[in-house]
Write a structure and sequence with these properties.
Elements lengths: L1 H18 L5 H4 L32 E6 L5 E5 L12 H11 L5 E3 L2 H4 L13 E3 H11 L2 H12 L2 H14 L22 H11 L5 H5 L3 E3 L9 E3 L4 H4 L3 E9 L3 E10 L2 E10 L2 H14 L1 E7 L4 E6 L7 E6 L3 E6 L6 E7 L12 E9 L2 E10 L8 H16 L1
Length: 403
């Protein structure tokens, strides 16, 4: 009986990997991963280096990296510009989370309702909460939702795309340019596998991001289906243990694209495949390889006192600071690096400061190279010092600025 059930589950899962069929959650819930890597097809123009650690990958560009530190664990042609298709919507979500209000009610315009490509079948004049539009955008890749969100926040899609590009460059994704919020084909709408990994990694630092990219199913009254249910198109949420996001994409020009996230033992990995033949298999292989190459090192735990920083104009000279979150970094298996912690306080810290205020960063250095940081917060309240102390601090700052 057990063999029969296992065999049926394996067949079901193989179908998902190879054909993209929506497999029932019940058949996959207890399975870590079961997939069969097909023979590498003949892919025109794909050249695989002799030392490629994953020669069966079918993606033209690929990368897997640690989100917290940016450590690259595998890459293939990760800096070549390619079309991102709907993986674009990761940045749309980020901009909406940072610039919009989730409880806003958005009015769907004719422009949004008439957009081409994948859709939520929104109609002009519909009134839908921003939170629900973002969920539909990420789960069901609704292009109409992206236009509605962009218009609501920035007034127009071009204005919103400009904000997206500026944010990408701020994150170090400088080979990226967005001209729309959904990824519909345009010669000037491009990115790289590495840039998408940087964008996704940043997304995981935002409080609400993971809830939008990892949701499997949700129901809303406005969904034009008898079940009123949306089901996430990202099969990795069912296929891979620890999967927690993030976005699929496809156009004829871009090919099959997938950005995947998975967390195990406190380590968050992000993988990207662009123009892939077997994107599920490629992504599973990337994440498997990534996790096999590293072991977690816990530098500090949330709330742990990590030292103190100097402050001016205060009743005391030093302020005790604590980690705002757990700080877990990867160490490559077989390597013995010098891993150091360094406090990086904000400039011109001055009283009053309240307990819990962010006052700087705790950075990790891996053999001298800065690799990731977390916020540090005040572990105590510190009030202003006397008038004399404040005047002394002001003069000192002035002298430092000009001399």
């Amino acid at each position: 009986m057990r063999k029969t059930i296992a065999k049926q589950a394996a067949i079901c899962l193989l179908s998902v990997c190879m054909l993209g069929i929506n497999a029932p959650t019940a058949n996959l819930a207890s399975i870590d991963k079961v997939y069969v890597q097909p023979e590498l097809p003949q892919i025109e123009g794909l050249t695989i280096a002799p030392d490629d650690k994953l020669p069966k990958l079918t993606a033209r560009s690929a990368v897997v990296m640690d989100a917290a530190t940016g450590m690259i664990l595998y890459e293939r042609d990760m800096n070549t510009r390619r079309y991102p298709a709907s993986t674009t919507k990761m940045m749309t979500l980020i901009i909406a989370l940072e610039n919009g209000k989730l409880d806003d009610v958005v009015t769907i315009s004719k422009n949004a309702a008439g957009i081409e490509g994948s859709t939520l079948w929104l109609e002009a004049g519909d009134h839908i909460k921003m939170r629900e539009l973002l969920m539909g955008m990420m789960m069901h890749s609704g292009n109409d939702a992206t236009v509605a969100v962009a218009e609501h926040i920035a007034g127009s899609v071009p204005a919103f795309a400009k904000i997206m590009t500026e944010k990408a460059h701020e994150l170090g994704a400088r080979d990226t340019n967005f001209v729309n919020a959904n990824g519909l084909p345009d010669d000037n709408h491009y990115t790289t596998a590495h840039d998408l990994a940087l964008i996704a990694s940043y997304g995981y630092t935002l409080p609400e991001f993971e809830s939008f990219v990892s949701q499997q199913e949700v129901s809303y009254d406005w969904v034009k289906d008898e079940t009123h249910r949306l089901r996430n198109e990202n099969q990795m949420l069912w296929l891979y243990r620890g999967a927690n996001g993030i976005k699929t994409g496809y156009t004829e020009k871009a090919g099959r694209c997938l950005v995947s996230g998975a967390r195990r033992d406190g380590l968050q990995l992000v993988s990207v495949v662009l123009d892939s033949v077997y994107m599920w298999n490629d992504s599973i292989a990337l994440l498997d390889y990534g996790f096999s190459q590293i072991t977690p090192v816990k530098l500090v735990k949330k709330g742990e006192n990590v030292g103190d920083v100097k402050i001016s104009a205060a009743a005391k000279n030093n302020l005790a600071v604590a980690a705002d979150s757990d700080f877990i970094v990867p160490r490559k298996i077989g390597e013995h690096p010098k891993i150091e912690k360094k406090i990086e306080p904000k400039e011109n810290l001055a009283a009053p400061i309240k307990k819990g205020d962010v006052v700087g960063k705790l950075a990790c250095y891996y053999d001298g190279k800065r690799m990731g940081a977390i916020d540090i917060v005040a572990a105590e309240n510190v009030g202003q010092g006397s008038l004399f102390m404040r005047l002394k601090a002001w003069i000192a700052n002035l002298m430092e600025k000009f001399f």
